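Researcher: Here's my situation. A collaborator sent me these components and asked whether they could plausibly form a single complex. I don't have experimental data yet, so a predicted model of the whole assembly would be a useful starting point for our discussion.
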Amino acid sequence: MSSQSLMESETEESSSIIESQQKIGLPVIEELVQRLQKHPPYFASTIARGSSDHAAYFAKYAFETQLGVPTSSIAPSVHTIYKSNINYKNGFVFAISQSGKSDDLIECMATARKKGAVTLSIVNELNSPLEKESEYFIPLNAGKESSVAATKSFIASLTRVIQLVAFWRQNQDLKNHLAQLPCLLSQKNSEQYHSALQLLQHEKSVLTIGRGFTFPIALESALKFKETCGLHAEAFSGAEILHGPFELVQKNFPLIVYLQKDEALSGILKLIDKFQEKEAKIIAIAAENIIEENKNLLKNTTVIPTAPSLDSLCDVVTLIHRFYPFAAQLAHLRERNPDLPKNLNKVTSTI
Amino acid sequence: MSSQSLMESETEESSSIIESQQKIGLPVIEELVQRLQKHPPYFASTIARGSSDHAAYFAKYAFETQLGVPTSSIAPSVHTIYKSNINYKNGFVFAISQSGKSDDLIECMATARKKGAVTLSIVNELNSPLEKESEYFIPLNAGKESSVAATKSFIASLTRVIQLVAFWRQNQDLKNHLAQLPCLLSQKNSEQYHSALQLLQHEKSVLTIGRGFTFPIALESALKFKETCGLHAEAFSGAEILHGPFELVQKNFPLIVYLQKDEALSGILKLIDKFQEKEAKIIAIAAENIIEENKNLLKNTTVIPTAPSLDSLCDVVTLIHRFYPFAAQLAHLRERNPDLPKNLNKVTSTI
């Protein structure tokens, strides 16, 4: 057995990071939220790249379902390449970034602020150029991240988004769940990944599936499989997969499916049934209670159980927290170093 | 040589469809545009699935760059599953659909209208339930589409979006280019696909790349490769590919790259250079003049030329119009019927 990768040890730090977030940054969140409650924005827009963009996609679902604010992703090229004159009046624009140093994100933030948006940056590194361009700043507080593949900074982004929603809605349940998360994440799960790892050891293609809140972590998982395992993984929502991508699902085609305890669950279970009919190789990642309650439906499915479910938003954190070590171990099995991909660097510049 | 597929013959109808769109639907466009010019919306949102969602993504770029209106995609699950109470006041919401019959799109449209948006549906079939739920309606006018893989309805969606922008901005150049498109598309291109087809005949994975306006057609191409060729194709923007997916690009890894004559071109050419360094197999699809002007940079790249460039928006139409017959011929070469995928039906219901 090889020594633990940075990808695994940095994932393990998530628990104490989430705990620290409950103390650091709160005055800014309260000041910002009071302003947004007083003058509700007509829309929100996100600025992010790579893994941070998946956290921004999670923010879109969270803002639309919990706050009723339509939320869009800003494609940086509309500003950096096409020099677009977008009117951001009455909008709330926020960026998520690990380094806060990408030129394209900085340019988008500066434009949004100039064009009238309330602006926020959520960045891991302090005193970054991105922080300086935005009116409000909240640190991720994830500490130095050395692995090329982001893990703890992604999880810290998700929890900052949940925290923002919890304060904006004054939702005490959500605040309580955030407080429970560190303990849940620090518990070692005795069930290991052996059978799921074997299923993917020699594969070249895989699809990752989520629905609603879990779709952003399907995106994140697909990116991590590419980065660390050289495996062509692609994410689809449980809704879109039947529009075309289903053509790939033949006998033994591998799929990773995320299950969460909310209104999306029954549709995802029906999808798994369709995949089982095709005799696909299915790996389900879900809270142990969801797996237990649906064990008959999952009889031809390899399961990776997580801690019990808190709520749909916080479940997303426990699900991806369980996925990262799995990806790191799969990389080892495929004779790769998950911390040092062959073609990639930690800071990516956009061409 | 097999007889021509429906996918190819329906693509060929695009020319006369675009011509017909210049007469049909204009009074509605003018009425709608006058209202939107008088009360500019603070944001726009799109409702669509599958290929139509790629046309909606093109609309996002076109609206943001040409009209300055921030535009988001509505994930139907926020309404159908999470019953979200989104405030659409001061928004412009439009749906794109071939059949206009999908329950989830209809539910989103009804909610957006009730919650205060100006609503438009752009649908191919007349008297659809979606049309009835929206205040304004413009027909795609693409005629009956029999192939499971959408082609002419996608192209007709792109041109309706361009038409909407041309009228909204009162942009006479854009109107003139739309008028030239039918003639350009009806010209047979003597250069055939042979060498590009051979490159992909036995591949299992491919990435498709666009930047800015061409990113939505990279998405559309990836979907078509899956549907018709059983080929795991995935789209990335030229910006995002260096954040992770680049790890897949090893020697002989196949890539399709779209080039357009605008500010995105130099970045895309730099990317091609990076792919050439890795000795990847690269296929570039571009206007013949762009290929000619950059032939030294493209010396290790297989090219598929289209008609000369009109402008970045209309170029997207000529590019995808050239791609569809390529995908159909690749399907034949891989011993598949492009019109009859194994797992798919024409109308897809969301689970």
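Model: Some features of this prediction you could bring to your collaborator: The longest helix of chain B spans residues 312-333. The longest strand of chain B covers residues 91-97.
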